[in-house]
Write a structure and sequence with these properties.
Elements: E1 6-8, E2 15-17, E3 21-23, E4 31-35, H1 36-49, H2 51-64, H3 66-83, H4 86-98, H5 101-108, H6 117-136
Antiparallel strand pairs: 1-2, 3-4
Helix pairs in contact: 1-2, 2-3, 5-6
Bound molecules: zinc ion (ZN).
Amino acid sequence: MDTHTTKTCSKCKQNLPLNMFGVHKQKKDGLRAWCKPCNQADTRRWGKSNPEKKAAGRKDWAEKNPDRWKAMKLESQHRNRASRLPKQRVLAKQKSEALSDNYVLTALRIDRNLVSKELIDLKRVQIMIYRYIRGRK
Ligand SMILES: [Zn+2]
């Protein structure tokens, strides 16, 4: 195996291409000892057992990097806006304002075979109440 294009992960012991490893500037080879999947699995496991720490860490990061945080938020907003076509947006708005059976059905997010007319009416009322509350804020 070519040692210049692969590296052995010290966690799962697999010989993997270098692009499977994250960058770590303090390391001699400039790469992390664990491969990306191992790192991700570990981060996820850690986050699961430390939900408060995870949230705190994110908040900490946002406080230390306010500009980057702002940029990230703006970017994601921009991305969401750009991904929607204006025509589709108008159509969706019309649909949601009219609260058509189909729109309410989508909002219910359950198999339409299990949805009764009564349930659609109830959901419609729920959406109207929600909008009323939101509109008052
Ligand atoms: Zn690994």
